[in-house]
Amino acid sequence: MPTPDRPHYTGPLRLLTSDLTVSAGETFTEAVMARTPPATRVGTTSQGVFADDMHRKLPNGWDFTVGNEDYIAPDGRNYEGPGIPPTTEVPALTPSSWLPIRRDCSIFGVFGLTRRAEVRRDGHGV
Question: Which domains are present in the chain?
Answer without folding.
Answer: 14-91 (3.90.226.10)
